[in-house]
């Protein structure tokens, strides 16, 4: 599907925030940014660099600023897009169309554009490559008990192995760890990665 078709579908489909996101679109396009479509959302760029994007969800809609942590945020409206995972991205959530403050939004967009023109940005930090994958005991025990699953696991890339290990390890309760383990073992046996559907 062409980018223009994806954009048309995003803005024309029936949704509780249909007119609100269209209003945001108009505001952003007035700034002279180029409209494209990435990660299932309308994204606005300058010199091929992502500046802002629009998202719509069940209970809210939002404007994302890719280097939002560098904005002054005088009204205290920006939130970390994914606490603990994103350093630069911030979003401004809205729950009704009436919350859209045209002057304020334009001010934030103008600052984001100006920062880009000045070369002010947060450079992505490359994670150091880990050479060895350390698995949680629960997963290691399950693999040791099932040679076919272990063989399938060993044939996965280190990144996919690490994803599975982290998925089990990050569960806070033991019963959640066990239920996660039960979910992933068949996926491992099929040679799938935990996040293959998002890659």
TrEMBL record:
Pfam families: DUF1801 (PF08818), OmdA (PF13376). Residues 18-113 form the YdhG-like domain. Gene3D superfamilies: 3.90.1150.200. Signal peptide: none annotated. It comes from the Bacteria. InterPro entries: YdeI_bac (IPR016786), YdhG-like (IPR014922). This is YdhG-like domain-containing protein. It comes from Maribacter algicola. The lineage of its organism: Bacteria, Pseudomonadati, Bacteroidota, Flavobacteriia, Flavobacteriales.
């Amino acid at each position: 599907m062409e980018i223009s078709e994806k954009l048309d579908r995003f803005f024309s489909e029936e949704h509780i925030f249909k007119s609100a996101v269209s209003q945001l679109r108009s505001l952003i396009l007035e700034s002279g940014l180029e409209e494209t479509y990435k990660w299932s959302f309308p994204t606005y760029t300058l010199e091929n660099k992502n500046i802002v994007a629009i998202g719509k969800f069940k209970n809210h809609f939002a404007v994302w600023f890719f280097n939002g942590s560098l904005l002054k945020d005088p009204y205290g409206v920006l939130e970390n897009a994914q606490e603990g995972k994103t350093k630069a991205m911030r979003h401004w959530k809205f729950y009704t169309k009436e919350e859209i403050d045209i002057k304020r939004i334009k001010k934030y967009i103008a600052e984001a554009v100006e920062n880009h023109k000045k070369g002010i940005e947060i450079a992505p930090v490359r994670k150091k490559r880990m050479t060895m994958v350390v698995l949680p005991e629960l997963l290691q025990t399950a693999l040791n008990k099932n040679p076919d699953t272990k063989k399938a696991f060993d044939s996965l890339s280190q990144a996919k192995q690490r994803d599975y290990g982290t998925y089990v390890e990050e569960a806070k309760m033991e019963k959640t760890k066990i239920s996660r383990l039960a979910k992933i073992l068949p996926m491992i046996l099929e040679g799938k990665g935990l996040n293959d559907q998002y890659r």
